[in-house]
Amino acid sequence: NGQPFGGFNAGATRVANWLLGPKGYQRLEDSYDPETYRMALYTGPMDMTNWMLRRGRATLEFDCKPERWLKSGQIPVTVASGEVLYNAWRETKPLLYVTGNGTLNIGTKSITISGTSGEVTIDCDVKDAWQGLNNLNDNIEVANRDWPTLPPGETTVTYSGLTSVKIAPRWWRL
User: Fold this and answer.
1) Which of 36, 63, 117, 129 has its CA 20 to 30 A from that of 25?
2) What is the pLDDT of residues 71-125, one digit of tens each?
3) 34: helix, coil or strand?
4) Pairing of the two strands 109-113 and 95-106
5) What is this structure's pTM?
6) What are the Cα distances from residue 163, in Å, to 96, 132, 135, 145, 160?
7) What per-residue string of b and e applies to 73-99 under the rule 16 or more CB within 10 Å gives b?
8) Which residues sit opposite 26 in a β-bridge?
């Protein structure tokens, strides 16, 4: 019939399924602030007005967490031992990618990795370590259970025994 999405009703159904499909908070981007995204939950309902089953308009409401996550902070950066990272924003809980066995110090906090091969992902937010589908929490030790963060200002990163460290700093602001 030449209409996008297979006609108005089919298009409206696809939009509703997209909005109502995922459970929990999801990444929401818009053109208002293209350098950031927010975590949002669609609260519904979706009442769509239409004109002759060809075009429609709806007001969508989202419950958004207050953080505006910088897209640049999601990109992992390779860090040399002794390198200083500068955080111009709020304290973050980084995502770490480490290769090798040894100790990683981020500021005054440290993580020891042992019994691994290949790249291990360590999420300082959810306090979890994995490689592919394998949980590696038994292969890491977080000193004093005090997970690394990147506070505002300068933080020195040092490591020994590891062959590669990448950090996605997860910069955010309000």
Assistant:
1) 129
2) 999 999 999 999 999 999 999 999 999 999 999 999 999 999 999 999 999 999 9
3) coil
4) antiparallel
5) 0.84
6) 13, 19, 21, 24, 8
7) beeeeebeeeeebebebeebbbbbbbb
8) 40
